[in-house]
Amino acid sequence: MMPLVLSSLLLLSAVPTVSPDPKSLEIPTEKLARAQQLVHELASDLYRERDRATRELERMGRLALPALAVARSDDDPEVRLRTKLLLPRAEADDLRARVDTFLADTDAKYDHDLPGWQRFRVIAGDTKATRDLFVQILKNPLNFEMLIALKGVPGEAIHGLAATVGSIGAASMDMPSAADLGKAVVNRRQKLVQNLMVPQPFNGGVYRAPATPELSDVAILLLAESYVSERIAPFGNNQYHIQNFFYSPAGRDAMTGAGPHGPAFRALTIHWMDTRDGVMGIQNAMNLAQMQNLGPQKIAHYAARLLRLPGGPAYARASAATMIARHGGKEYLFDLIAQFSDSSILVRGAVNANQNEILMKDVALAMVLILTGQDPKEYGFDAVNTAPGTQYNYTNFRFRGDEKITGEHLRATAFKKWQDFEISLHASVAGPAGVALTVKKSAENTDDEIVKKAPK
């Protein structure tokens, strides 16, 4: 059914709506009445009447959309079946009309009910650059699949899972079904990969080189991905990973805000980064924030989110811990301290070299010490590298035992020393009663006395 939707959009693009005023899309009363009558005839006992009504409803296109939307839940199974077959064409017709009206409104005089547009301009800013970027999205018919999915009217996903069956025109706000939109996002990523690998047909059979995504293609995908959790739209090897675009010249330039669409694209990207909720997504956001020099506060923010992620692998949390220390994220000290109970093994030891494992809590302690202006060596750590900028590696610090003392003893001593240090800080604030405090802080603890007392 998807080929029917796309072919309908392409055919209809040859007859654009001239008026820029969305009111011109209002369906005349007599057309509404005629469509309702034809829907009623879909339940006729006579086959020829049912067939004639079906063909006339198909010719009506978007004018039949309100009547078809109601008939979708009709009691008669014949009516429901024929409505299901007619809806994609009517929806495609309606979307094409709305797109043409939007494109005709070059002076941006009117408000338009177009899938994704309202959220797009809230995120990217209500500016001419934002509208121009959305226009570029609309000029590629392949993006219409994502627009239909973004509208997300509840209903059955049509073939290809790139759009949902439902009345686009009847809905007033974007409420996409997470499951259907997630499938549409995955489908779009797969198509982008196919475009990168396979020569594309062009101008009636003449082929061109494999196509890299355009800025507008990535922009609509950024918007769509920001609606859904990474759990619902997981990444696979046969999908285009959107972060790859940011390493291309076009992506790097746009992320700096350069070019006519740069500011809008940059805002969309940062919003996408803020909505990531999986290991891969938050790692990408953290690394992209560093690559684009978004500032230490933003980088540390993403690192802390990665550190807090339930069930996140130890290597990812260790990397996040070092990133917090590297960028001076003292406000996330208690997120690091919360890792002191985690004995996950990051690097296995070598017995013959008296080299103990590196545990997650070891990395957390080392980074806490750096953030509080202390020397990890004074806590028994053996450091591979202490030069500025090179110490932020989770394999850098370990408790290396010898024939006289074990690494495990060094570890226990280090954590006891930290506990004494922390209690002394609380005692200095709370008085003698503070010495009795049991220092077990959670990631949600808002007490920032350690931050205040830590050496600058």
Key traits:
mainly alpha, 3 domains, elongated, disordered N terminus
Walk me through this protein's architecture.
There is one protein chain. The chain is mostly helical. It has three domains: 1-107, no CATH class; 113-275, no CATH class; 329-453, no CATH class. The protein has helices at residues 2-12, 29-41, 47-60, 65-71, 77-104, 117-124, 128-138, 144-151, 178-197, 215-225, 249-255, 262-275, 279-291, 296-308, 314-326, 333-337, 360-371, 407-430, 449-453, and strands at 200-202, 206-208, 345-347, 358-359, 382-383, 397-398. The protein has a two-stranded antiparallel sheet with strand order 1-2. A hairpin with a 3-residue loop joins strand 1 (200-202) and strand 2 (206-208). The longest helix is centred in the first third of the chain and has 28 residues, at 77-104. The chain is elongated. Mean pLDDT is 81; it is low at 1-17, 153-174 and 430-456.
Going across the biggest sheet, name each strand in turn.
1-2
> Structural class from helices and strands?
mainly alpha
**Radius of gyration (Å):** 29 Å
Instruction: Give the N-terminus to C-terminus distance in angstroms.
Output: 64 Å
Number of strands: 6
Please indicate the percent range of residues in DSSP E strands (runs of 2 or more). Answer: under 5%
Overall structural domain count: 3
Number of helices: 19
Largest sheet: 2 strands, antiparallel
Helix/strand order, N-terminal first: HHHHHHHHHEEHHHHHHHEEHEEHH
Given as residue ranges, the uncertain stretches (5+ residues, pLDDT < 50) are 1-17, 153-174, 430-456
User: What portion of residues is helical?
Assistant: 40-55%
* Average pLDDT score: 81
Instruction: Sum up the overall morphology in one term.
Output: elongated
